[in-house]
Amino acid sequence: MATYVDVKSEILRWAIDRSGLSSDAFREPVEAWLREEKKPTFNQLEAFARRAMVPLGYLFLQQPPNEELPVPDYRTRKDQAVRRPSPNLIETIFEMQRRQQWMREYLVEEGHGSLPFVASMKVGESATKVAKDIRKSLGLSDDWAAQQDNWEAALRYLRLQIEAAGILIFVNGIVGNSTRRKLDAAEFQGFVLVDSVAPLIFVNGSDFKVAQMFTMAHELVHVWVGQSALFDLDATRPANVQVEKYCNAVAAEFLVPAASLQLAWATHRRGDAGMTSLARQFKVSPIVVARRARDQELITEDEFFNFYRRYTNRERKKGEARKSGGDFWRTQNLRLGQRFGHAVISAASEGRLSYSDAYDLTRLHGGTFDKYVQLLDQRGQR
Questions:
Q1: What would the mean pLDDT of 18-35 be, rounded to a whole number?
Q2: Are 90 and 120 in the same domain?
Q3: How far apart are CA 373 and CA 123, in angstroms?
Q4: Number of domains within the chain
Q5: Is the N-terminal amide bond of 65 cis, ω within 30° of 0?
Q6: Distance of CA 211 to CAs 92, 189, 272, Å?
Q7: Whole-angstrom Cα distance, residue 289 to residue 277?
């Protein structure tokens, strides 16, 4: 016999609104529940919770919960605060918090202490000084990017150096490994969770790849000034908040030093070809070069946004042309980060972490987890 459960229509309406899905996604018998003409069975409520991407326990509350993000929210669109965060964003932030907390405890047990660069600078200090300190702490020379073959290689190298310095970094465009739950780049581009032992950077992998390097650099500055944040960069512009503007300025100086750009600008070609040429020289995306040129008043605001639209439209078309979802195993290095992955595997193999907990932390289970361990070991032996 089916077991019917009591659930308030107010809670159901809240869950539907929270999901961000259209009302068409919720039809009968949900409409009858909302009118309180029928009650759902427990199995029906479970299915509804999965569809609405809401924890099942929330549906038994007497009133909607006040879901507050555990990080300052600096997201804006046209200087207006954005609507409440989506279930995908909420789940991603809390999952990263769980990973960070576990990693912190693991590192402390291993004898690691606080990282010296976390919260080592103050907002307002010279952008050149902070950018120089970031490069030094990451083991990067002044011309580190120019030594790479292209900006894609520079992006990979930067990510590896960030990990090597002790910062957790995750790049993912979906919730965990669920390809049905894509993260929306229009909602956020990244966030940073500052901790003295295990600072964490998350980059929204569904964003244009050309924008991800600037997001990484922006998040690095947050670590240096010791301020966690959830943010977006509307056409690379930060929110109208002091710390966001400052992090953008330092990130720009870190990637494209003003003095170097001024020298290179004198001989560059005008138009899109010139931006592409400079991007190859600095090993960053053309968008970063264009934004830096605008900051230095080498081009006008209109010139920047016209270029930005042309370039992103081309990138969007390239993305649409790529049908393949990519190599699942190669993608795991981005989704989990090699440093975090190695730590979980090490703890599990030593019996310090149960395999069920290792599965939960990695979202890999059984044979999939075992294969990931083998591939990570093979890479480590090369």
A1: 77
A2: yes
A3: 41
A4: 4
A5: no
A6: 20, 9, 17
A7: 10
Q: Is the pLDDT of residue 316 over 80?
A: no
**Mean per-residue pLDDT, 73-89:** 71
Non-local (6+) Cβ contacts of 120 within 8 A are 133, 224, 226
Residue 66 lies in a domain: no
Nearest 5°: CA angle at 29, between 23 and 32? 85
Range of the domain at 286: 256-319
One domain, residues 52 and 42: yes
DSSP tag of 4? B
pTM here is 0.84
Beta strand residue intervals within 246-376, DSSP E: none
Residue 170 to residue 259: CA distance in whole angstroms? 32
- pLDDT tens per residue across span 264-289: 888 877 778 888 888 888 888 888 88
CB 222 within 8 A of CB 189: no
**Which residues lie across from 41 on neighbouring strands?**
4
Which residues, at least 6 apart from 31, have a Cβ–Cβ distance to it below 8 Å?
none
Confidence band of 63 (pLDDT split at 50, 70, 90): confident
Q: Give the CA distances from residue 173 to residues 153, 184, 188, 191, 345, in Å, rounded to whole numbers and listed in that order.
A: 20, 8, 11, 13, 23
The answer to whether position 373 is within a domain reads yes
120 shares its domain with 201: yes
User: CB under 8 Å to 278, separation ≥6 — which residues?
Assistant: 261, 264, 265, 268, 286, 289
Segment 303-308 mean pLDDT:
88
- The answer to whether residues 147 and 125 belong to one domain is yes
Cα–Cα distance, 337 to 317 (Å, whole number): 29
Q: Does residue 290 belong to any structural domain of this protein? A: yes
Residue 42 pLDDT: 87
Predicted pLDDT of residue 161: 96
CB burial of residue 101 (10 Å; 0-12, 13-18, 19+): middle
* 129 plus 237 within the same structural domain: yes
Q: Tokens standing for 44? A: 């029906």
